[in-house]
Amino acid sequence: MNASSELLKELRIDRKAPPPPTSRRALWIALAVIAALLLAAGAAWAFFARDKGIEVRTASVTPIAAGGASASVLDASGYVVARRMATVSAKITGRVREVLIEEGQAVKEGQVMATLDPIDADAQRSLASAQLGAARSQAQSVQARLVEAEANAKRLSSMVQRQLVSRSQYDQAVAQRDSLRAELLTAQRNAKVAGDSLRIADIGVDNTIVRAPFSGVVTAKAAQPGEIVSPLSAGGGFTRTGIGTIVDMDSLEVEVDVGEAYIGRVQPKMPVEATLNAYPDWKIPAEVIAIIPAADRGKATVKVRIAIKTKDPRIVPDMGVNVSFLEPDKPAATQAPPRGVRVPAAAIAKRDGGDVAFVIAGDDKDAVEQRPLKLGRTLGDDREVTSGLSGGDVVVLDPPAELQDGAKVRIAEDEASKN
Hints:
Layout: H1 2-11, H2 24-49, E1 54-60, E2 62-63, E3 72-82, E4 85-88, E5 94-99, E6 106-107, E7 112-116, H3 119-161, H4 167-206, E8 209-211, E9 216-221, E10 228-229, E11 244-247, E12 252-259, E13 271-276, E14 283-296, E15 301-308, E16 320-326, E17 341-344, E18 349-351, E19 354-361, E20 367-372, E21 374-379, E22 382-387, E23 394-397, E24 409-411, H5 413-418
Parallel strand pairs: 1-24
Antiparallel strand pairs: 1-23, 2-17, 3-12, 3-16, 4-11, 5-7, 5-10, 6-9, 7-8, 9-11, 12-15, 13-14, 13-16, 14-15, 17-22, 18-19, 19-20, 21-22
Helix pairs in contact: 3-4
């Protein structure tokens, strides 16, 4: 019994015994994981909760050059047109053999643009050449006979004086000589006519070659090899009238329609500032060429021609353009010194009843500073600012109503990529 009791005591669990010691390494790992999670949560909160600022578009302030900028007295719209533009065609009806132009290709005056099938023209030239050869041969034959007749008449003239031959024989020799002279004159004239026919046939061959009438750029290719072309379009809808269209880019100008009520403001040689619809930020210097002395009663407008002073490949025919007629330049003695800067009108806003602009400021260029302005003249789409801004400042375009002094901003992505 005692032995069994002892064995049972050994199997009893002692609940007052201390727990086994915990590993310190596992505790440090758990603390490190908790700290990493806390840091990640803090970084995420800082990234998503921070103020990114208002997205804005910007523009630079331009100082007004010496002499100032001329104020606009009238605005109008029109199109770029070419004074020299031609649809080039062959002078004859024929089948196109080869076309040597493509759209956008520059051509020189006299350059070959296309050729027509020359079979008929070559055959006509060969016939004219053969006729000329025959006429010349006939003239040479008559010339040889005339030499003989003149010698015979001269010989009989001396014999008749000595009464060795009859007078009738001498008269017959003289008549034959005069007849051959007339025949030679006719043969020579026939040879001249044959030569003229050959030259006309040469022109016919040359007419199968279509050349550029002036230097320019091809804007349209109208024919393909194998088609029939005719300047009169005699073949109906299946006959082309031209090979292609070329434009002299040096002859480009602007035509605008000005209302009758305002045409008195426009004068020849008046300075103009043109802006293409395709490039609204590009101001092109121009000048009034002439005012067409005729009005459109339907639209109550008068057409005005404007010369473009800048030659640029970006200017192409039929482009839409807006023009501002400017005040004539003043003499140097009366010009005022430069004052103020030129600012896009879209950068000017109203705050508390005054005109202001928001300038990009701050060390990181991520904040704006509100500045009060004193405005001057209207310069097309821009305004003259006499106080509040200086050349080189960067202003916010179309500032939203919630934009205030010191607000955080960020430049639009399209502008940031350009910069």
